[in-house]
Design goal:
The complex is a heterodimer of chains A (615) and B (461). Chain A is 31% helix and 20% strand. Chain A is α+β, with helices and mostly antiparallel strands. In chain A, the strands form seven sheets. In chain A, strands 1, 13, 14, 15, 18, 19, 20 and 21 form an eight-stranded mixed beta sheet that branches. In chain A, strands 3-12-11-10 form a four-stranded mixed beta sheet, covered by helices on one side. The radius of gyration of chain B is 32 Å and the shape is elongated. The chains are: A alpha+beta (615), B mainly alpha (461).
């Protein structure tokens, strides 16, 4: 008995020692692995507005399939009622909008379905001239009637698309003048009108409203509650629209989604994949005359979106050849699990920027954070660079405000607050937080400086940030409690403003309107100004700038706004996120852009030797 | 004995009722509202117009019946008192928005149509403070869906209400009937509303007719969701069950009859190790080692079919399915057969020590007959108990294995439904699961009676 015990015990010790050797010190690991881990960093500053990560040159060939992985399956593909980002990404290939981004100037004025447009003198009316050579995937011609129909469907109050409809809340009227002219009028000269009015998917009227239920009603009718209550046809249309089979074309016998875009909808096998096929009758097949595109596109025969929910499974599938491209992998996978010579030879790793920024939100209405000096101090107590290096694998890009770093709105002249605990303590004491009662915790007016940092239970990086903060603040006499909450409860607390501190991401775009998040009107009542930022000058800038059509003037106002944010520190702005991904090196024409999702498959093509390898 | 089983079957209904009420309450009490998700999981899409958002949220809640009280609706009698509470609240100068406001106004909203004559009466009374007028107008507009926009002046809104209530020509020149007539209710009708204007009774009645309603997330019938996911989970549950029993029973018998031999010791150690390995870890390791990354490429790691499986012939299709199912199946099963074989062993060991086994041997029966005919039958009782769990397992799936292997089964369905607060799906899955558990227990009781003649359910005389 004793002998066998000794043997087992020594075996265990040996096992423990063996498995723990080979773990190097953190510093050395970071030196080796950080940097790019063999990948390419996409930079979109200065001259480059589109970044190509594949070797230039070579003639594009048509053919080949691209399989890439999404982490979640969209529940439906109804462009207006779906709330899932995955659905939008897929539908962007099948449907088109009136305008698109110009890839050189990044203005939203590239003519897509609209070959030209005018804005009236007063700025309220937009007139679009629709191209005459566009055909739907089923052969019918696309006309201004389809555009008018799409707007009517959007504004129909019974259609289940409230978030989308709210962007169009200032539209007062829309009409057609003949088959190829579409006009629309808004009651405001909002600077984002062009993007909103030119940026909704155009749906085919003959598919979605075959009975012509909405023909009799004008846009004014649909906006009038008296009419919408009385007219049964309006509700009937919406009931059909919300559950239309085009929203869920599952299985072999389903009618495919009919759009006008460069890709046809092919198939959807639930839980498995969604596939798209090239539209060989695409109206824009010869796209050299389109400003912003430098060459043809839509070379791939097929694009297949496979649903793989687990990150490890995704990476394994890539290595095993089941998929060709992962748009987003975990940082730890990018830096430690994809470094074998085999992998680097077969795949190209890329890290590209996502217009989403990470921030720490201080509830300005809590006694601890109502003084801006304390908020500035908090910012100086967070080691942003350390966090980025040790938790973020160096993937974050530090930022000083909510505007996208690649946009013209970003104020490059502002320097971030440094990591300076000493200066931070001075500020805190200036604001009156001193340890009056000698218990080791600072207090003021009888309230101890003891707050709760709420984080979402799914986020490991927030957890590390909270732990970091807890430790650093303990040293200066501030107590931090960490509370992990399930996502839906977390969101509830946000909306009801029941929190002290939160750590979250906001997703933005190239051009942003700060009204929703920063104006004092949006505090409370479930508005997005959760932290309660109130500043008279900021409010007035936000209100005025919305209607300034001149970009230079407007951005100058937003520069001033960012100075205010810098001074007031309502959030501690952390970093813009870089997403790490990898694709098979056989693909060329791989381009990266500063708008979501960051990549455009339009220009990808596969080298000639691999064409013909299908499923 | 059949009387006993009849009694048991009848007892299922009150048990189900109890289970459903408790589940209902627990789920509804959890914080989180599916409307919030529909309105804006996206953070840049929220309406900048707060009033619009409020109306829209209210309407969406109404579509899903979330605006009514949970169990029974007594607000239809108490609205006058509830109004006094609102007046107190307003007198204290509190805000006309926010959680506290929503809570105080909720009972009157829940009284819905029944309170309308009272509310209109208040307006026509002209004794209200400005704030009180605003509150009453808001309640009427939102619940009765009047064509009033908050941009209209108060007087115009009051005028609209007068026209609407009493009939007459409204601002667009159309003659309307008096709304007053459609809001008259008899005492009995009001009494019925206690049950119809509440969430649980409505749901219970639907459930009894097996109408589970539509999912809140994508408006598709819950039944469709279940129909799609159950077969997937079923493949695993059944195969895993058969496999586990096929392995565990012989293994258990072997361990019991060869107790303390090296074979037994080795088997015990291996089974304990297997049992203690957490399945999510094993799943991930299996994917990395056998899925074709840096090591072996034996199994595919995602989903149930390869791309293009629809075009394969039947035999090829089944082979492909088997190839995909193999890895998740192994992981699903190893835990259960380890446990099962230990139970088998323990139970058999106990039986083998019994006197009647010694008697059987003394009678000269071969060891084989003793083990398999006599001992085995008596040791099966614990195993049959496990059977009771089989049926509900078919519907609960395994969320861990399903999400790691991207298998669209019941585990993913119910888990996502809970995260999203998709009540129709959650309630449907829980109810079906409860029914299956109860049936499973009944079935195993029946099997006890069959397997072991000593067990009867007769009453003692």
């Amino acid at each position: 008995m004793k002998k066998s015990f000794i043997i087992q015990f020594s075996l265990m010790i040996l096992l423990i020692i063996y498995t723990n050797s080979g773990v190097r010190s953190t510093e050395k690991y970071l030196e080796d692995e950080l940097g790019n881990a063999g990948g390419i960093r996409v930079e979109l500053t200065g001259e480059e507005t589109v970044f190509e990560s594949s070797p230039k040159g070579g003639t594009p060939v048509k053919g080949g399939t691209l399989v890439f992985a999404e982490s979640a399956e969209p529940e439906n593909l109804n462009s207006y009622t779906s709330t899932s980002a995955a659905a939008t990404r897929i539908l962007d290939y099948v449907y088109e909008t009136l305008l698109g981004y110009d890839y050189e100037t990044w203005r939203y004025d590239r003519p897509v379905l609209a070959e030209s447009f005018d804005i009236s003198e007063d700025g309220y009316t937009f007139t679009f001239r629709i191209r005459e050579n566009v055909y739907w995937h089923d052969g019918q011609q696309l006309t201004a009637d389809d555009v008018l129909f799409s707007i009517k469907a959007t504004l129909n109050p019974f259609v289940d698309n409230a978030p989308m409809r709210s962007s169009f809340s200032k539209v007062v009227s829309a009409w057609t003048e003949g088959p190829f002219v579409f006009g629309i009028r808004s009651s405001e000269t909002y600077f984002r009108n062009q993007e909103i009015l030119g940026g909704f998917h155009i749906l085919p009227k003959h598919i979605w409203d075959p009975k012509g239920l909405l023909d009799r009603y004008s846009v004014e009718d649909l906006l009038n509650p008296t009419v919408t209550r009385e007219e049964a046809a309006i509700k009937e249309f919406a009931d059909d629209f919300n559950v239309h089979p085009q929203g869920r074309p599952v299985g072999d016998e389903a009618e495919p989604i009919i759009g006008s875009g460069p890709w046809l909808f092919d198939k959807w096998i639930t839980g498995d994949y969604i596939s798209l096929a090239r539209n060989d009758n695409y109206w824009n097949a010869d796209s050299t005359f389109i400003k912003g595109y430098s060459e043809d596109g839509a070379y791939l025969d097929k694009i297949i979106v496979k649903v793989i929910s687990d990150a490890t499974a995704r990476l394994t599938a890539l290595k095993a050849g089941e998929i060709d491209f992962i748009p987003r992998m975990r940082a730890v996978q990018y830096f430690t699990q994809t470094n074998t010579p085999d992998f680097l030879e077969k795949f190209q790793k890329v890290s590209y920027v996502n217009p989403a920024y990470h921030y720490v939100g201080w509830n300005n209405d809590k006694p601890y954070f109502s003084d801006k000096r304390v908020r500035q101090a908090m910012t100086m107590l967070i080691d942003k660079d350390g966090y980025n290096k040790y938790v973020g694998y160096g993937l974050g890009i530090p930022t000083i405000g909510p505007f996208f770093i690649y946009s013209e709105q970003y104020n490059k002249n502002i320097e971030p607050w440094p990591y300076d605990p000493q200066r931070a303590v001075e500020l805190i004491e200036e604001a009156g937080w001193i340890d009056h009662d000698g218990d080791g915790i600072r207090d003021k007016d009888g309230i101890p400086f003891n707050f709760t940092f709420s984080i979402s239970s799914g986020s490991t990086s927030s957890k590390y940030l909270a732990l970091m903060l807890k430790e650093d603040l303990r040293k200066v006499g501030i107590v931090v409690n960490i509370r992990q909450l399930e996502w839906s409860v977390y969101v509830e607390n946000l909306r009801d403003r029941q929190f002290d501190v939160v750590s979250l991401l906001w997703i933005g775009g190239l051009e942003m309107d700060p009204y929703q998040i920063w104006h004092s009107d949006n505090i409370g009542d479930r508005g997005s100004n959760y932290i309660g930022f109130r500043h008279a000058e900021a409010d007035s800038i936000i209100e005025t700038a919305r209607y300034v059509m001149d970009k230079e003037k407007r951005n100058a106002m937003y520069f001033r706004l960012q100075e205010i944010f810098h001074e007031e520190q309502p959030y501690t702005f952390m970093h813009f996120q870089r997403d790490p991904g990898a694709y098979l090196k056989e693909f060329h024409g791989v381009k990266w852009i500063p708008t979501r999702p960051g990549y455009k498959l339009y220009s990808w093509w596969r080298s000639a030797s691999k064409v013909g390898a299908t499923l | 004995m059949w009387k006993y089983f009849l009694k048991r079957i009848l007892l299922i209904f009150p048990t189900l009722f109890g289970i459903s009420i408790i589940t209902f309450i627990i789920i509804k009490l959890a914080p989180g509202d599916p409307t919030a998700f529909k309105m804006g999981n996206q953070q840049t899409g929220m309406s900048s117009d707060q009033n619009l958002a409020k109306q829209v949220i209210e309407q969406t809640r109404e579509i899903y019946g979330l605006d009514k009280p949970l169990l029974l609706n007594f607000t239809i009698y108490s609205y006058e008192d509830d109004w006094e509470d609102v007046r107190e609240y307003l007198k204290a100068g509190k805000a006309l928005s926010g959680r506290a406001y929503d809570d105080i106004v909720e009972p009157i909203k829940q009284a819905d149509e029944v309170a309308v004559p009272f509310l209109v009466g208040l307006l026509q009374d002209e004794n209200l403070t400005d704030n009180e007028i605003l509150v009453v107008l808001e309640i009427l507009t939102i619940k009765q869906k009047l064509a009033i926009s908050t941009e209209m002046s108060i007087d115009k809104q009051l005028e609209y209400i007068d026209n609407w209530w009493g009939g007459g020509t409204d601002s667009t020149g159309v003659v309307r009937n008096a709304a007053r007539d459609s809001y008259q209710y008899t005492g009995f009708q009001i009494f019925k509303k206690i049950f119809t204007e509440a969430q649980y009774p409505r749901w219970l009645v639907n459930m009894m007719m097996l109408e589970f309603g539509d999912s809140i997330k994508d408006n598709r019938p819950v039944w469709d969701h279940i129909k799609e996911s159950v077969p997937v989970s079923l493949i695993f549950t059944f195969t895993s069950f058969i496999l586990a029993y096929l392995i565990a029973i012989p293994l258990g018998i072997y361990s019991a009859t060869h107790q303390y031999t090296t074979g037994d010791k080795v088997t015990t150690v291996i089974l304990f190790i297997l049992y203690s390995l957490p399945n999510f870890w094993v799943a991930t390791m299996a994917i990395v080692f056998f899925g074709g990354g840096d090591f072996f490429d034996i199994f595919p790691v995602t989903g149930l079919h390869s791309l293009g499986a629809e075009e394969m012939g039947t035999w090829e299709y089944l082979l492909d399915l088997g190839h995909h199912v193999a890895l998740p199946l192994i992981i699903w099963t190893y835990g259960s057969f380890s446990a099962l074989s230990r139970y088998m062993r323990g139970s058999m060991l106990e039986v083998i020590r019994q006197d009647y086994i010694r008697t059987a041997r003394a009678k000269g029966l071969s060891e084989r007959v003793v083990t398999y005919k006599h001992a085995l039958r008596n040791s099966l009782i614990p195993i049959i108990t496990m059977l009771a769990n089989l049926l509900p397992l078919a519907i609960s799936g395994s969320i861990i294995i399903e999400s790691i292997f991207s298998i669209p089964g019941m585990g993913q369905l119910s888990f996502n439904a809970v995260l999203f607060r998709d009540y129709p799906i959650i309630m449907a899955v829980t109810t079906i699961s409860a029914m299956l558990t109860l049936s499973g227990i009944l079935l195993s009781d029946l099997l006890y009676a069959i397997v072991d003649p000593r067990i009867t359910f007769e009453e003692k005389n």
